[in-house]
Amino acid sequence: MDNGEIEGTDDNEFASSSSSKGVGLGVGRKYRPVVAHDTDRAVLEMSSLDPSSFPKKIKVSTQPNSGSDSSERSLPTHVGANGSQRESKLELFGFDSLVNILGLKSMTGEQIPAPSSPRDGEDVSITLERPKITGVKSGTMMGVFVPCLQNILGIIYYIRFSWIVGMGGIGESLLLVAFCGACTFLTSISLSAIATNGAMKGGGPYYLIGRALGPEVGVSIGLCFFLGNAVAGALYVLGAVETFLKAVPSAGIFRGTLTNVNATGVAEPIPSPSLHDLQVYGIVVTIIICFIVFGGVKMINRVAPAFLIPVLLSIFCIFIGIAAAKKDHPASGITGLSLQTFKDNWSSDYQRTNSAGIPDPAGKTDWNYKNYTIPTRGTVEAYLKLPVAFALVGLFFPAVTGIMAGSNRSSSLKDTQRSIPIGTLAATLTTSGLYIVSVLLFGALATREKLLTDRLLTATVAWPFPLIVYVGIILSTLGAALQSMTGAPRLLAAIANDDILPVLNYFKVADGSEPHIATLFTAFICIGCVIIGNLDLITPTVTMFFLLCYTGVNLSCFLLDLLDAPSWRPRWKFHHWSLSLIGASLCIANQVHPKNWYPIPLVFCRPWGKLPENVPCHPKLADFANCMKKKGRGMSIFVSILDGDYYECAEDAKAACKQLSTYIDYKRCEGVAEIVVAPNMSDGFRGIVQTMGLGNLKPNIVVMRYPEIWRRENLTEIPATFVGIINDCIVANKAVVIVKGLDEWPNEYQRQYGTIDLYWIVRDGGLMLLLSQLLLTKESFESCKIQVFCIAEEDSDAEELKADVKKFLYDLRMQAEVFVVSMKTWDIHVEGGPQHDESVEAFTGAQRRISSYLLGMKEKADREKTPLMADGKTVVVNEQQVEKFLYTTLKLNSTILRYSRMAAVVLVSLPPPPVNHPAYFYMEYMDLLVENVPRLLMVRGYRRDVVTLFT
């Protein structure tokens, strides 16, 4: 065998094998054509190397089961990347040349072991066989559609859905299903676009978000999604156990409880399982599921149909039972499909319930928000009852989650780019259609009382007997729990493998291995939540975890699509950045309950004047910001605006931001510093109020100092800027607190005595009340008492108003003394008018200055033959209205001085800037309002409540 030729023992010559390692053979060697089944083992061979200079011997073995003997031949040392000598002409290209098939594997993101470098004298064994298949991959049906369907069709549909229809009515229930379904559908579209933009490894949504927005964002959202899956497993387990104990009460180890409907002893009591039974059975079921998960994905794929088929059968039996139901059959309260029942159940009927969800006037759970209004026209307005749509969202949303059950197992799918979009969207549309039809059928099937009292109405109407639904509920929840316990550990292992958080190194796994330690940790979290034993307490937590993750997926797709990165080429074409933006907006629009509202101050550091050198913020602003936070907890954002061009002032802005951060730390205030460069203060603040913060972490209240020096130092630009900032806050729906007398604001060591007086004029969502309570938590104000002055017109019923306000404060758990002050009309000639008031000098001064300013505007307009102009825009001045504003402000100032001269601090409603009035006029109104009041907070709420009667 001259010229380095090598004999093969079968039809597949060694040429294909050796060439796959980059081996050059002798001259005259005939090349075999590369055919389809050889593409993974053959590449073109190069014959330019001299084999005589490489004495190295390589041991070549053929297929291990062929029975052929191996032979030793002299071959070049340089075999692909494994050579120890580097005299090859391929050195020009480096050893990672294009002919290296490993390079193609690295482009797909696969983990490739580093090539070994054999020592001299060693033999290198080459095996001619195809790569070993690690395991069976799943397709669209079993890998995505079935897991998603099992996670979506859970306990909420069976034991909460009919109750939601009874509480919210058919109309609002349809809106609820549409809202939640749209949220998950849009997220599925975003998920499909990202999943088809290249190969996706294990980790599902974490992998997607981490590669799109960065590993830090991916880890934070990925951990939330992991916790959501782990807690959801407890939700499903508790649902299965609760259903089992209701179906078989004799299986209970401990004694259950009895609940009387409507708190009467006449009605038939409803049994409820014992908390200890839920805990014991829940722990046992969780352990069993954990052992099943230890068997791997292959075992779960075999078990999954056994859980899903009875679920689909139970739903079929429910629909058959609904169609066959008649009046009072199969139970009282069942009307059959009736148009009259449909009309009766169309509207909502929110009411109190007990812990079992049964309507009870004495129940502790109230499904109404009650927004009280303080009247200003002498009549007590009835409080407004608003439907608790967002409360029902928190309860129902877990019924639509589960769309990522397939993507969680991305490493086990044959074709992620095909299976994830088709399987996820199919499951989403199927379940959404099922829910919409169910709302209509349940609403037309039973009376509202039956819907609200029979938590297992689905089992009651099932044909031919309820046992089918009981089995369906148990198997559906166990199937969903199985999917959660399968996906969550793999997600945690994927996060750990990225080495972002060292504390997660214990959960690392090799490729293709089962995450056993992560599975045990997930089971531990699940057991901890099962011990809580209350399904309704776990549901809102699951909702927030999933919404956070869905927001991350939508934002990832939105940013990638909007920026149009070169690598953004998804195969899924049915997407658009606007859909992702809408999906993200829906995910972050769940309202925070007023009981969980807390101020996030945006502290405007602009001093309206000069500060001492190296002092970036007024020394008392941080003290006041701390007064707005209970026990000093919570975040504040300190912002300042640097006038100028960004390119010229960028370095100055960085230095100023560092200086402001140091000041915040020195004042021991939890918060962050931001410096914005803008052409002027108005533009800078408008940008800040629109963009600062994210989601529920956006600042909700703007704090700034009142510009008391504007007239004294003749700062003529301040009125327009000040009014513009207030209007920007109103448009951006931010609350506003303006501090007058900031220089005299006490620090933490200066104890105050006296009262905290509130002049409550307009409805502000309770913000003024909440601020007064927060002040009482500080050592400097803890010795003070609260006084509430309700301003009413002279024809109002003062006693009735006082009684209503006292009852409202009592329900709010606030101790305060209430006074009703009757404001006279603005006519100056009434008895006790402003001519007898000590503030008359300020009033006449403001009146004189406004008249002079107005005269100047008119002369300028006549001279230029233009309309009245102020602050660069046209204004319409009603002189009679201006006089009315002045007299009203003066009267309010006189009232404050009469009753609150010795108050530690006064809070008063901030009037909005009048439309079409010059900013100068508004500053005169405000100056008259704060005249001779040493320490005053002007407060304006926004369109939401910040206090609630209910815990």
TrEMBL record:
Signal peptide: none annotated. This is Cation-chloride cotransporter 1. GO terms for molecular function: potassium:chloride symporter activity. It comes from Rhododendron griersonianum. It is found in: Membrane. It comes from the Eukaryota. It is a multi-pass membrane protein. The chain crosses the membrane at residues 140-161, 173-196, 217-238, 278-297, 304-325, 386-407, 419-442, 462-482, 517-538. InterPro entries: AA-permease/SLC12A_dom (IPR004841), SLC12_C (IPR018491), SLC12A_fam (IPR004842). Residues 1-31, 46-83 are annotated as: Disordered. Residues 143-589 form the Amino acid permease/ SLC12A domain. Residues 619-740, 751-950 form the SLC12A transporter C-terminal domain. Belongs to the SLC12A transporter family. It holds the Pfam family SLC12. Residues 1-13 have a biased composition (Acidic residues). Residues 60-69 have a biased composition (Polar residues). Keywords: Glycoprotein, Ion transport, Membrane, Potassium, Potassium transport, Symport, Transmembrane, Transmembrane helix, Transport. One of its GO terms (cellular component) is membrane. The keyword Transmembrane applies.
